[in-house]
Design goal:
Layout lengths: L9 H16 L9 H23 L5 E10 L2 E9 L1 H24 L6 H20 L3 H19 L6 H32 L4 H9 L5 H18 L8 H4 L5 H9 L2 H11 L1 H4 L5 H20 L5 H21 L3 H28 L17 H15 L5 H17 L1 H26 L6 H4 L6 H16 L15 H5 L11 H20 L6 H7 L1 H8 L4 H47 L7 H23 L1
Antiparallel strand pairs: 1-2
Length: 624
């Protein structure tokens, strides 16, 4: 029995406790209580280390624990957690990134009047994600899934006094809700078919034919919709770039370890179920491939430093989902980790740039910052080259693992389409670096820029070290029975180098790097002329293919118009006529009827006489 894994619940539990204490008593505590979430994150990472070492040294693969929450006859509903290889990887990623981001936030958020609330919600956000990856049943997972959405809403809209931030928070909340409804429907369908929410039991039932093919298809589709919403896959991608209105450390946490990776984790967790549905993984792969290319193209023309990174995240999430569609679980999870560390490094580097330039985010107003911000420049370059897949950085190893998995699972057509995305990724990353750090200063803010304090640059150095060395996890290491990251996730996976895919992918990545450097580094190729030559296409991409405008048109012309019609119908027909109309008719009838109720005997006698006369006349007419 793995003793440390039995206490895995302490990791999210400590974060939730830190949230409660900091939000309630933070203002009365020393340093506004911000040390509590940091201690919770540190405790979580230390406990993760013990769990990981135990798994490496002990011959146990899964640890579970649960409690009965509701018992009805022979049926019971449990809350439980499961510690296996996938959840261990996620625990390490979330705890470490949240710890680094919170330390960085000490400098970045210094002086903010709601500092204690910021750190409190950070703890809630991380705690919800940690509980999500430990959940052993879909109902508990969905509960944590919604808490993750709540945390993102609060943090994206942290500066709610800015209209753009409050609108971005609502956009993220509503867009992801669309996918969440699908996830809930999928969970209900699986519960109806199996009578349980327990994930291993559901997968076991599906593998043994206990779930009908139609139920499997529809539940898989609904689950995938939930993952698409959280991981910002097309067409749900529109919320993530706008989410950059939140504090930059929040963007780092969302993009690297929490909100958006929840969708990838869900697909990875439910992959044995999705594999059963004929052809379904091909749909997953197509969505991932389209998102990978689509977002990469948009990233090429964005000028806001955070939005370039946002579209980069969307693109790489698409690459992970494409790899899962190819059946490459180990490769996708490896890139999830590598991307998480690299993207955290890049977003915190972007925050350092913004800090040194008084909040400026337009890349065309930067330039020449490598002379003013040397630490940020070097660490940012490491993050860019890692995501570009340049040897020997960690992104090179995860990129090759994915390309091999895609070729083996989907064939050469998908492989060469993916290589086009690799080229785009390399091109937009070097473009971003050159615009920010190379050339001459293009504004007064750039001329007066300065390096960030050590509390912000130290996390950059730590993350850049991981960007350099994390790829070594792909190789067997002298730690118990650790045979490489891929083998840790999937015992059937073994690291290997393809004699033709590896040099081809490296050549494609280097080509993007060289072309981007020639365009934006030393201006040997004019990007302005290219933009003019493809003017309409450039405008189309710069406008993000008018997807946001199209959605707004649907909302204005269809959703709101329908809502107005329903509102008028409800008010005029249902309320005024159907409900109030009956009451008004009774009142009007009463007003008229009371004219006959005078209380005078001769009026009643006259009425009776007229009535008798009328009846007599009618009797005579009928008789004749």
């Amino acid at each position: 029995m793995i003793l440390s894994a039995e206490y895995a619940w302490v990791i999210p539990g400590s974060a939730v406790i830190a949230f409660c204490l900091t939000s309630l008593f933070g203002k009365a505590l020393p340093f506004k209580g911000i040390f509590l979430p940091i201690i919770a994150a540190l405790l979580g990472f230390i406990l993760f280390c013990f769990i990981f070492i135990d798994f490496m040294l002990a011959d146990v693969s899964v640890t579970t624990a649960s409690i009965d929450w509701m018992v009805v006859g022979d049926w019971s509903l449990t809350w439980g957690f499961s510690v296996d290889e996938i959840s261990i990887v996620m625990l390490g990623l979330v705890t470490f990134i949240s710890l680094v981001v919170q330390v960085y936030s000490i400098g970045y958020m210094s002086g903010d009047p709601r500092l204690s609330w910021y750190f409190a919600v950070h703890a809630l956000f991380a705690g919800a994600m940690l509980a999500l990856v430990l959940a052993d049943n879909l109902l508990f997972l969905y509960f944590c899934w919604e808490l993750v959405g709540l945390g993102s809403y609060l943090l994206i809209g942290f500066w709610f006094e800015k209209k753009a931030a409050s609108e971005a928070a609502k956009k993220a909340f509503i867009t992801t809700r669309l996918g969440d409804v699908g996830l809930l429907i999928g969970i209900i369908l699986l519960f109806k078919a199996t009578g349980t929410f327990h994930i291993p039991s559901i997968i076991h039932a599906a593998q043994n034919g206990a779930i009908s093919e139609s139920t499997l298809m529809w539940s898989s589709l609904m689950i995938f919709l939930g993952a698409m919403g959280k991981s910002a896959q097309f067409p749900f991608h529109v919320w993530l770039p706008d989410a950059m209105e939140g504090p930059t450390p929040v963007s780092a946490l969302i993009h690297a370890a929490t909100m958006v990776v929840a969708g990838v984790y869900l697909i990875a967790r439910m992959l044995p179920l999705l594999e059963i549905v004929p052809g379904f993984l091909t749909i997953v792969a197509l969505v991932g491939l389209f998102t990978f290319l689509f977002a990469g193209i948009i990233a090429l023309v964005m000028t806001d430093i955070k939005k370039v990174l946002a579209y980069s995240t969307i693109s790489h999430l698409g690459l992970m989902i494409l790899t899962l569609g190819a059946g490459g679980l180990a490769a996708a999870m490896f890139h999830l980790v590598v991307h998480g560390f690299s993207k955290a490094l890049l977003f915190l580097g972007a925050g350092s740039v913004m800090h040194g330039m008084n909040g400026e985010t337009d890349c065309w107003k930067m330039g020449g910052l490598r002379r003013k911000m040397s630490v940020t420049s070097v660490t940012f370059l490491i993050g860019c080259l890692s995501l570009a897949g340049i040897i020997p950085l960690s992104g090179f190893f995860s990129k090759d693992e994915m390309l091999i998995a895609i070729n083996d699972g989907l064939g050469p057509i998908f492989l060469f389409a993916t290589l086009a995305g690799v080229f785009l990724s390399s091109l937009y990353m070097i473009r971003l670096y050159c615009l920010i750090f190379m050339g001459r200063s293009r504004s007064d803010e750039a001329n007066n820029s300065h390096e960030s304090p050590s509390v912000m640059t130290f996390p950059l150095l730590v993350l850049s070290l991981f960007g350099l060395l994390l790829g070594l996890l792909a190789l067997p290491l002298p730690l118990g029975n650790f045979e490489g990251f891929g083998n840790f996730i999937d015992s059937h996976h073994h690291f290997h180098v393809s004699p033709w895919i590896t040099p081809l992918s490296l050549g494609v990545a280097l080509a993007g790097l060289i072309i981007g450097f020639m365009c934006y580094g030393y201006s040997k190729i004019s990007h302005e002329l290219a933009a003019m030559k493809f003017g309409y296409l450039y405008t189309l991409v710069l406008s993000k293919f008018y997807i946001d405008e199209f959605y707004q048109w649907i909302i204005d012309k269809m959703v709101l118009s329908t809502a107005r019609f329903v509102s008028i119908f409800d008010r005029v027909v249902v309320n005024d006529t159907g409900v109030d109309g009956i009451g008004v008719s009774v009142v009007l009838s009463a007003f008229k009827a009371r004219l006959t109720q005078t209380g005078k005997l001769y009026n009643y006698g006259t009425a009776m006489g007229v009535g008798i006369l009328f009846m007599a006349v009618m009797w005579i007419l009928v008789s004749s």
